[in-house]
Design goal:
single chain, alpha+beta, Nuclear Transport Factor 2, Chain: A, 2 domains, 3 helices, signal
Length: 153
Amino acid sequence: MRAPFLKSLRFAAVLGLMFGALSLGEAKAANPLELNFWLSGPRYDGAVADCDKALPTIATQFWEKESSFWNSPLKITGFAAVHEVAFRPWASDNIPRRYCTADAMLTDGKVRKVHFSLVEDGGFAGYGNGVEWCVVGLDRNWAYNPSCRAAKP
């Protein structure tokens, strides 16, 4: 009863060695069948929301970040001077983004600049617009340093 099991095990080992030896060869470019076979790529149509649509998301995410990670009571209480800085500032085949800036009033009484962008299909699991933002002076993990410059176009 062990003989069929050993034969299949031997066959699997030989097959594995053959495929392993084939994969050690030189890497080659895709052949014509692999090139464009159901790989049409993303289709962006530039449907990015206006700057105002991102403000509630920024306020909520800012409060969550400050309270959870920095043990800070800071919240954004309002926005002013919201305006677009750029739309699709790079080549047209890049992911469409709308760059905006605004003044944010915080609970500590200070007004700080917020630089943010709305990204087409940048939401959770590629659904909806995603929002990337940075509050100048409160980029505590230096993700967009210096002075939130990396959040601008």
